[in-house]
Specification:
Blueprint (H helix, E strand, L loop, with lengths): L1 H19 L11 H38 L6 E4 L4 E8 L4 E6 L4 E6 L3 E4 L4 H5 L1
Antiparallel strand pairs: 1-2, 1-5, 2-3, 3-4
Helix pairs in contact: 1-2
């Protein structure tokens, strides 16, 4: 990720240097053609930035939200804190779940946003 950000910064600096060296017309004013080229380069840069950084991140957020929303009683989960257990109750009004963990069957109430992964594979998920 750091290499990608460094690459994007390098490209943006090159674009700034390139657009600063555009040929000018009479009287030192820039041509309309060179301005359109400059705007086109920036537009292409932002489209690439969108498809490389923002779109995959939004897809990942939607997938995680669907996974947390579709967690069911009986699913094995791991929280973002590393606690693993089985969901024994879902409390919709509090937006939390109760998990059972360990050999002594201790119960913990955690918020739904704290689900790190659902480890149970359902038949409909396997079909996809």
């Amino acid at each position: 990720m750091k290499k990608l950000i460094a690459l994007i910064l390098t490209i943006s600096l090159a674009l700034v240097a390139f657009t600063g060296c555009m040929p000018t017309g009479e009287g030192g004013e820039a041509n309309n053609g060179s301005m359109f080229i400059m705007l086109g380069i920036y537009a292409v840069f932002f489209v690439i930035l969108y498809f490389v950084l923002f779109r995959p991140q939004n897809k990942k957020k939607k997938k995680e939200a669907a996974m947390k929303k579709n967690a069911q009683v009986g699913d094995e989960i791991t929280t973002i804190g590393g606690i693993s257990g089985r969901i024994i109750a879902i409390k919709e009004e509090e937006d939390s779940i109760v998990i059972e963990t360990g050999s002594d069957k201790s119960k913990l109430k955690v918020k739904r946003w704290a689900i790190g992964s659902v480890d149970t594979i359902h038949e409909d998920d396997a079909a996809k």
